[in-house]
Structures
1.
Amino acid sequence: MTKEVLISLKGVQFDGPVDENSEPLEIITNGEYYLKNDTHYIRYKEPQDGDAGATKCMLKIKNHELELIKRGASNVNMVFIKDKKNMSSYGTPFGSIVIGVETNRMSLLLEEDRMQVKVDYRMDVNYEFLANCSISIDVCSKEKGSVLFRS
């Protein structure tokens, strides 16, 4: 895969069981990709509302594990490992909250110019159930992405 990539991130939250008919929130953005020590790194900026500016994000993918790191107005480090619950602190301008992420299902597809990751997980906030969630990440070389992500 080339260094310059296009990234599509789709996420959905459900109060109950995962509902296939719900509309996901989708972000398509430019980013950078590199491979180091068998770990795939994807860096991108996520736009924010208001004066907060963009949040710097990094995805680390290795051995069917996904780590999402966000730094900006809000800070979080979430780790997704199938059949494991991971706890982290979610720092906001109003204080920190505890986030629990229990990964139910995870799939990873690696191709020469494309990577797809899908994760279904349960999210707790301050040790209370919040939602069942699903995230789908599609990363591809910028040249291929201009065809794949065309509206």
Note: The chain has one domain: 4-148.
2.
Amino acid sequence: MKKQGGGKIINIASIDGFNPEPFVSVYSISKAGVRHITRSFAMELARDNIQVNSICPGPISTKMMNSHWAHLPPEEAKKQKEEMCKRLPTCRIGEPDEIAGAAIYLASEASNYTTGTEIVIDGGFLLGLL
């Protein structure tokens, strides 16, 4: 990237890097590390015209999220999903396409002055209002 005059690095962290969940400590620790390396590399690479940013998704309907409920009977899975949704100001779990817009922005020239930033896409989960 230095040789070509710049570039974009987009890391994927998680809201678990802000507020760890029980029983996934290693995952949470690794995502906190992704947050920190994003900021560190952003400082180190800014003068080389390399922007380093991260996206921090919250509850998004992916294979990983759905694995939380895959082993449960359908009624229990539905109940647990509803409980999660009650904790979200948006009252729903996000979709993968809702992460794509942030990635497109960070990969585009529109973000040339954006570095060391974390874009949290979590339906308001980190607001902690509910």
Note: The helical segments are 25-45, 63-66, 74-86, 97-107.
3.
Amino acid sequence: MITSISLNPSIDRTLTVEGFTPGGLNRVLSSSDVAAGKGINVALTVSALGLDSECIGFMYRDSASLFEKRLMVNSTAYDFIWYDGPARTNIKVFDRSASVVTELNESGRTCDDEGLKAMTDLVCSHAENSDYLILSGSLPPGCPDDYYRTLINAVDGLGCRCVLDADGDRLRLGLEARPFMIKPNRFELESMAGHSLDTLEAVRDAARKYIRMGVEVVAVSLGEDGAMILQGKEALYAKRLNIEVKSTVGAGDSMVAGLVAGFMAERPLEETFRMGMACATARCMTEGYRIIDRTVYKALMDMVVIERI
């Protein structure tokens, strides 16, 4: 079982306009609401790969039906701690003429100490039956920046491996608990290093610091430049595949899902990396918030070219 944690779920509301005018009147051509959040995205992608997947986290009764329907349709189990009211809404204004998206993201609903204690207990109860625990995304207001560290420490000894995909202090503090894998992007790695990383060798050397700290795997997404993964003394790099990009929403979450699927199957690092790259690429080839096509994903694996750095 792969368990994904969603502490700050969101409804992503996409508004399509023609020629967005800041400060002016913009007429909406179409709109759509989708249950989302990094933890939700990871869980759904794991299910799309044919693995047992579940999502646990905070949920809000006024918005629950949208989340429950999306998870159930995609055969993803869930277990939530409930609050009254609606989930946060992230507004994405898509200017069709310029192919540009403007994002307005809410911070989320404030959680309290009682809710955090209940969440820690819930995570521990699921960790006992999980092979991997994926902690990703933002934290709601009222949740301390070290909460991912708290959760990783809480499940220590319960038999699951922890994967951390966060930024800022959430990543820095979470690293202290030595998760099995982290997945920073180049910007996040540069922020922790305190300087720019302009070459693949510089990225590799910065990532190796966290291997020496006790993290077993470091996967770095490099956007247009592809991605890199390190484990032990191995450092592998893959260029981005030349495909028509239809959406980048959830690409990083899909990479995490593909990598964890490879580790679950005890594949060699190179094959696991192919799975992560193929999964992220399949997401980029998929319009909107649709789930990836497993047939496309499998075909892409043979196209990933990997080199040692």
Note: The chain has a mean pLDDT of 92.
4.
Amino acid sequence: MKTILDACCGSKMFWFDNNNQNVLFMDNRSHFEQLESGHVINVNPDVVADFRNMPFEDDSFHLVVFDPPHLLRAGPKSWLIKKYGKLNPETWQEDIGKGFKECMRVLKSNGTLIFKWNEDQISLKDILATTEFKPLFGNKRSKTHWLVFMKNESEG
């Protein structure tokens, strides 16, 4: 049983070991493409599933990483969209809120949720307004934020 879930792994860009045996890599798509620009798109998850409705039992993981797509706007042929995905401009608040709930559902009591967000198109304040869960700590001054949450026993 793997103890860590990466709920939106994309091309596993921030992992030092993107084949870590403790991690179950999940994304809503699988895609490989080498672009004329030289960029390689390689989204190759262990499980293809939606972060809003995960196929795992409650209390399954000790650590969950939630790094959903950050973009609302980009060209339809943009390599950024191919690599990182795109949020639905009409439902992104509901989608992110469902994602937080699902991450907490599959997280064990006293487990840790690591959330990554880039403020290029949506502010962190607006993202945090989509969920009732509150971060313990994280960086507040950069454009890309890493926040840490913990699932309390009362949230199980």
Note: The first helix runs from residue 79 to 84.
